[in-house]
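Slide 14.
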Amino acid sequence: MQGFYSKLDSSPSSSPLLGVGMGREGAPVPLSLAVETEKAQALLQTFSSASLLASAGLGMFCVVADHALQLSVIQNHLWLRAALDNATHGLVGLWSWAVVIGLRKKSDLYEVLLAGLLASIIDLDHFYMAGSLSLKAAVSLPQRPPLHCSSLIPVLCLSLRFLMWIGRLKDAWCSLPWMLFISMATHHVRDAVRHGLWVCPFGNTAPLPYWLYVSTTATLPHLCSVLMYLTGTRDVISTKHGVAIDV
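Slide 15: predicted structure.
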């Protein structure tokens, strides 16, 4: 995948003191224009061929994994079915976040693994709701457990962002709410094929058509990238910390 590096901080052709940069022909370019041009290029890369290919691969993985889970050898074993279904949730979340940030450094790998973990541990609320460690009880609940309420996604993400602001956490952590968004959203969309989306306090939607689930899952990383751009998260990561952003 192609990455995006902020060149304005390191290029000798730009000077924050003068407020100008040098164009390709050596002509002075206002620094603000150079910044906006760089931002526009980063946004366009959101739909680069490498990024689109990775998203297409994610969609194909969803189809293959879901069909594999329907095999009788898996369906006839409750623990195996539950473990593989949860692992699929994790891999979809992991893959989705990898499309958003790319894999260039060791820390990127840790982020991607964390996204996969977050997408998987959502299902622990089944056991909380059942009040038991029994898997049979956990999958036979009369109603859906709390973390499967889709209305919680914006609430939790905004709350996390607020807590980070209160705690004055480093800008390097600014993508954490977006990681949580991807992890929860991919999990909820996948579950919605069978149960619909639970939107409190309005109730459940109809189950999502399978094609809509696959296309939404493949599109979510690009939506996340655009929203990160619009909210300035990408600027913070790339210009303040020199981090490569894969879009």
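Speaker note: The radius of gyration is 21 Å.
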